[in-house]
Design a protein that fits this description.
alpha/beta; 19 helices; 451 residues; 4-stranded parallel beta sheet; globular; 7-stranded mixed beta sheet
């Protein structure tokens, strides 16, 4: 057996998703309705979500069956390979063994398609004809546009304005599958118009794009909203990544000491880490590390409290690590990680000490990405490169200590649509930006009061 490239048969695509809520020592507090100030009633969310996804959001059932129609479509690219980065190991001179789970083989080029297909399926089953969503770097919008096309549904995407202009080929991809794309903030919604009044040159944020998409979905009976990260059911759908990785390591008689994944809203991290966190809760010695940008350090500099998931305060108020819902992240070239909050499940695990987190600056991320591309021949997405940077840092620690740790990271997507970002880096136009503590403190003054 080739232990450097580990493949599974198509029949080994997981038949069930793993729900970590069945095993957590303590669940996050329930989401609060912005309208009533009380725990959200399911009927309040039926305006934007189908019943099946709401059930997945709230259930404590450990294993959830993957519908045959969903499994058939994701089998176009799943199982994804587990690859040992031997050339990177050699370049670093480390005794560590470095593996990566490569999610860039999906039609949209990232892990996002794992949940997009499921969400489109459940909405179609509920009779919904249109989906609205937000997208940062464009990976989620690409994934949902592809998935809506599979089920004959319309798709409208509010794309964070700075990424709308940074990522022209992401827009082209979405249009190829029939989606409509608008830069956010836009003139199409009250949330967008209010933001433009405050700052006509606002670069946008995921929190604001969410507001626009939710506002439109709530106003139309034929339309629902789909979210690419953060929520419990999104994290659930992504666990196919970690479940496959466990099978692949078992095939070669190995197991990771540490797992790294980039973390913005949390779905990529949850996808690879949650099945291994279950192992940790059952006594395995494994450390899962969520890696975020130094310019948007939600876990490492945010606080654990209740906050809105969007700027316009339309979404439920969730218990999570947050930098404040009106936090305006800088226009870094990792748009998919520019979110003020964090998945309630990831937040709770971090708060309970079951996972760890670290932040890395932008220049280190791009330096690591170039090294990986040159050694391994894969151009990684800037978001994914946060995990690469943290893995390289740990591998160099192993070089100093002589430890031969087994390191796993999730290469959550390719960077073929991110050439403008790489060109800016190689031309010396990028710089590091650490968000000022004073600015974070100011944003945190505006948190909701929850009794």
């Amino acid at each position: 057996m080739d232990k450097d490239r580990v493949y599974l048969d198509k029949s080994e695509v997981p038949k069930q998703w793993y729900n970590i809520m069945a095993d957590m020592p303590k669940l996050p507090a329930p989401p609060i309705s912005p309208a009533t100030g009380k725990p959200v009633a399911p009927e309040e969310l039926l305006a934007i979500f189908p019943p099946a996804l709401l059930e997945q959001e709230m259930t404590d059932k450990r294993w959830i069956d993957i519908p045959d129609e969903v499994r058939e479509i994701i089998s176009l690219w799943r199982p994804s390979p587990l690859i040992r980065a031997r050339r990177l190991e050699k370049a670093l001179g480390t005794p560590a063994k470095i593996y990566y789970k490569y999610e860039g083989l999906s039609p949209a080029g990232s892990h996002k398609t794992n949940t997009a297909v499921a969400q489109a399926y459940y909405n179609k089953e509920a009779g919904i004809k249109r989906l609205t969503t937000e997208t940062g770097a464009g990976q989620w919008g690409s994934a949902l546009s592809f998935s809506c096309a599979q089920f004959g549904m319309e798709c409208r995407v509010y794309m964070v304005k700075v990424s709308y202009f940074q990522k022209p080929y992401r827009k082209a991809f979405m249009k190829m599958f029939g989606a409509e794309i608008f830069p956010s903030p836009s003139e199409l919604t009250n949330a967008g118009r209010e933001a433009l009044k405050r700052n006509p040159d606002m670069p946008g944020s995921l929190g604001l794009a969410i507001s626009e998409a939710v506002e439109e979905a709530a106003g139309r009976k034929d339309t629902n909203y789909a979210l690419g990260s953060v929520l419990n059911h999104v994290c659930l759908h992504q666990t196919v990544i970690g479940l496959e990785a466990q099978k692949q390591f078992a095939k070669i008689g190995a197991y990771p000491d540490m797992i790294f994944a980039s973390c913005g809203g949390g779905s990529n991290f949850a996808g690879i880490a949650f099945p291994f966190v279950l192992d940790k809760m059952n006594g395995k010695n494994v450390t899962a590390v969520a890696v975020e940008p130094a310019s948007c350090p939600t876990l490492t500099k945010g606080i654990y409290t209740y906050d809105y998931g969007d700027v316009a305060k339309l979404t439920p108020i969730m218990q999570m690590y947050t930098l404040g819902h009106d936090f305006e992240p800088p226009a870094i070239h990792s748009g998919g990680l520019r979110y003020h909050g964090e998945s309630p499940l990831v937040s709770a695990l971090y708060n309970q000490g079951l996972i760890t987190a670290q932040s890395v600056p932008q220049l280190e991320v791009f330096n690591s990405a170039l090294m990986f591309a040159k050694e391994e021949g894969v151009v990684p997405a800037p978001e994914s490169s946060h995990a690469i940077a943290a893995t390289i840092k740990e591998a160099l620690k192993c070089k100093e200590s002589g430890e031969a740790k087994t390191l796993l990271f999730c290469l959550s997507g390719h960077g073929h649509f991110d050439m403008m970002s790489y060109e800016a880096f190689t031309d010396g136009k990028l710089e590091d930006y650490a968000y000022p503590e004073a600015a974070i403190a100011e944003s945190l003054k505006h948190l909701p009061e929850v009794k």
